[in-house]
Predict the structure.
Amino acid sequence: MPPHVPTPAYRRLSFDERRSQLLDASLRLFAQRTPEDVSLDDVAAAAGVSRPLVYRYFPGGKQQLYEAALTSAAEQLKQCFDEPREGAHLSRLARVLDRYLAFVDEHDIGFSALLQGGSVVETAHTTTVVDGVRRAAVEHVLHHLNATEPGLRLRMTVRVWIAAVEAASLIWLDEGKQPPLDELQAWLVDQFTAVLAVTAAHDPQTAALLEALPTDG
Amino acid sequence: MPPHVPTPAYRRLSFDERRSQLLDASLRLFAQRTPEDVSLDDVAAAAGVSRPLVYRYFPGGKQQLYEAALTSAAEQLKQCFDEPREGAHLSRLARVLDRYLAFVDEHDIGFSALLQGGSVVETAHTTTVVDGVRRAAVEHVLHHLNATEPGLRLRMTVRVWIAAVEAASLIWLDEGKQPPLDELQAWLVDQFTAVLAVTAAHDPQTAALLEALPTDG
């Protein structure tokens, strides 16, 4: 190898660049393997650095790396929910679900390991991070419904639907990624319409909001 | 106290009776407090026995007691699903939900602590027990739908609805047990009808099963 081409281990990175590089390598590993199957040696190898260097940036070892990678993944997921409040309501929801389900597809093993429970790395902290993503999802959906002061029944409907999307994602992974993603996405959008209609039949607030939503028709 | 009335601590119980008594006491405690807030002394006091006696029956201490109490609670929950295959389909579902939601109401704190994740007592074993309850619930629903060989779409619909019932139960506890239980139950039944109809619109098997169900009408 010519001397002017540095190997990854010898590139000079700033503290933040190095930390971010280690985090990216961790996230890729934790996405594709269960936390039990990721070692610090794997992270070091994937980032092209030594194991002591990984420890210098993450003295808490695997648990700290896992929590940092999870926090980073949670930020990515929250960005999936960003969608302009323009156009038909269900088209916006479909685009958000496209991004969310692509994330699930890409981080499949890590997504299952985290959310199915019983993982050794699961703590009150990781639960808080996951709950933060759920809360953000609920807020976004209510925002797109123009629900500034959602009542109990509307809030519960949206929270339960978000839980159903999460469950459907896990079941989709468990079923070997069947049915195709576009079918799953359309089914979840239709489910959303259906469960909101059920609530609207008994809840005037939900009925009024649905009435006022922009549609394609 | 007259000498012929034995106190609980001095009643002679068989091994199985004593074990069952300790388990009942544990289950009551774990239902109403987080696992972190239950000590072996609490269990001993609730059962009217000494702490060493608790250890003699459960040498694994709190974790073993918790897992045994959880297994016992899981059996109770599975019994909630037992419902004769007679009469209108939705009335059967309503009765099962009545029993399930009464269980949630009674075991509120333990139910939340177990299912919200991040609890110190959560292990791969407890996850397996909880998954066993979910699987039993799915089987019962499919059985009542007369679905002997459920396809992917029907199976996914039922699994996601069961997850939605679980999420709704947790959210109901989180919302201070609002709305009233009978309203929550009716809403879940309506949701079931709605999501099955969504699936039936694209899945001939689900459509045919729904067509054939006995109704009140």
Q: What stands out?
A: Residues 165 and 178 of chain B are 15 Å apart (CA to CA).
